[in-house]
Amino acid sequence: MKGLSPDVLTKEKLRSTFKKHDKNGDGKLSFEELQAAFRELGGGISWYQTEQGFRHADKNESGYIDIEEELEALVDYNAKK
């Protein structure tokens, strides 16, 4: 997810922002909720980059990213970009 500084993307910052955008409070992010969270974080992340990060992090292919269990995969994906 090119454009977001690693300094800004601490796990705590991501977790906090993701929880804020978890509209129904189920501990999971839909693609749309993830997009909204990335818009808040800034960095000009494209739809394609968000989609690729979402696919990478959604290890169980549930269509959601579990904030606690799959956050690490999203951070790892960001580090590679």
Automatic annotation (TrEMBL):
Keywords: Calcium. Residues 9-44 form the EF-hand domain. Pfam families: EF-hand_7. One of its GO terms (molecular function) is calcium ion binding. InterPro entries: EF-hand-dom_pair (IPR011992), EF_Hand_1_Ca_BS (IPR018247), EF_hand_dom (IPR002048). It comes from the Eukaryota. SUPFAM superfamilies: EF-hand. Transmembrane segments: none annotated. This is EF-hand domain-containing protein. It comes from Castanea mollissima. The lineage of its organism: Eukaryota, Viridiplantae, Streptophyta, Embryophyta, Tracheophyta.
